[in-house]
Design a protein that fits this description.
Radius of gyration: 18 Å
Strand content: 15-25%
CATH architecture: Alpha-Beta Barrel
Shape: globular
Largest sheet: 8 strands, parallel, barrel
Helix content: 25-40%
Strand order of the largest sheet: 1-2-3-4-7-8-9-10
Number of strands: 10
Distance between the termini: 10 Å
CATH class: Alpha Beta
Order of helices and strands: EHEHEHEHHEEEHEHEHEH
């Protein structure tokens, strides 16, 4: 089981260059970064799990920060947890993702999700009730651009002509039943478990990125059943549990459930404090 790390990386925290180097030197498997473009001051959307951390309004662009991390490392994985796909132009986002994957020699994992902040999404022109369909549509459009041959796409929310576009993501396209191969980097969907999310994961992703919590074993069993019914290969399902605060027995429990990767939560603090936490987390590696 891989052990990685995440934090709300901001203009006030440890830098991505220093953090990436420290993670690689200490033997961590990867670095994952979340995304918010902005937080409207007038907001009615509740933050999942309580009070919103102030760092949400100060986050660095995950793709720019991960590009810096890629430039100073050679081994650790790089990922998003999560990319708010609905808030991006899909042609431009496809280029950013493929470029980062190319420059990091295929080390990118794309965590995607549907978001929680209606006001933020509205500023990007997102109609909230259709955001899930919008994400699915934009992922299909991006995969057309990532295809090995020029491929056109006509969807509900967007279209692209058959185009010459490079670089291509490093990971080979994955076959799936009843649809074109899934091109692009490993893609994990974040979100609360349930039949709808499980179906989406089996349909157009490579796995699940849940936030750690109770009841994970039962939910994983349900997801694996849906995955098998969709004709996907059992060994191809990848599960990365994120925002984990480690404690005695927790990582062993996840490993016993067949979790592939655990992403430990670091504090959104300066260099000295983050390094102290990394010193403590070293015992879990």
């Amino acid at each position: 089981m891989r052990i990685s790390a995440t934090l709300y990386l901001t203009d006030e925290t440890i830098t991505p260059v220093r953090l990436a180097r420290e993670l690689e030197e200490r033997g961590f498997a990867g670095l994952y970064l979340p995304e918010h473009t902005h937080i409207p001051v007038s907001r009615e959307s509740p933050y999942p799990g309580g009070e919103m951390p102030p760092e949400c309004a100060r986050m660095l662009s995950p793709f720019v920060a991960l590009a810096q991390a890629a430039a100073v490392t050679s081994r650790i994985g790089l990922g998003t947890n999560i990319t708010l796909v609905a808030q991006h132009d899909p042609v431009d986002l496809a280029k950013q993702i493929a470029t980062l994957d190319h420059l990091s020699a295929g080390r990118l994992t794309l965590g995607i999700g549907y978001g929680w902040n209606r006001e933020e999404a509205a500023d990007h022109g997102v109609h909230w009730p259709t955001r899930r369909a919008l994400v699915r549509d934009r992922m299909a459009l991006m995969r057309a651009l990532w295809s090995e041959e020029p491929t056109a796409y006509e969807g509900e929310f967007g279209r692209v002509q058959a185009s010459d576009v490079h670089p291509k993501p490093v990971r080979a396209p994955r076959a799936r039943k009843g649809g074109p191969p899934l091109a692009g980097p490993r893609t994990l969907i974040g979100g609360a478990p349930g039949p709808r999310l499980h179906g989406e994961i089996a349909d157009f992703a490579d796995g699940w990125m849940p936030v750690g919590g109770s009841g994970l074993g039962a939910r994983l069993g349900e997801l694996r059943g849906v995955w098998a019914e969709a004709g996907r290969t059992p060994e191809d399902l990848y599960v990365a549990v994120t925002a984990v605060v480690p404690e005695a027995g927790k990582l062993e429990h996840y490993e016993g459930l067949g979790v592939d990767e655990v992403i430990l939560q670091l504090p959104a603090r300066g260099e000295a404090e983050v390094l102290k936490v990394l010193d403590d987390f070293g015992r879990y590696l």
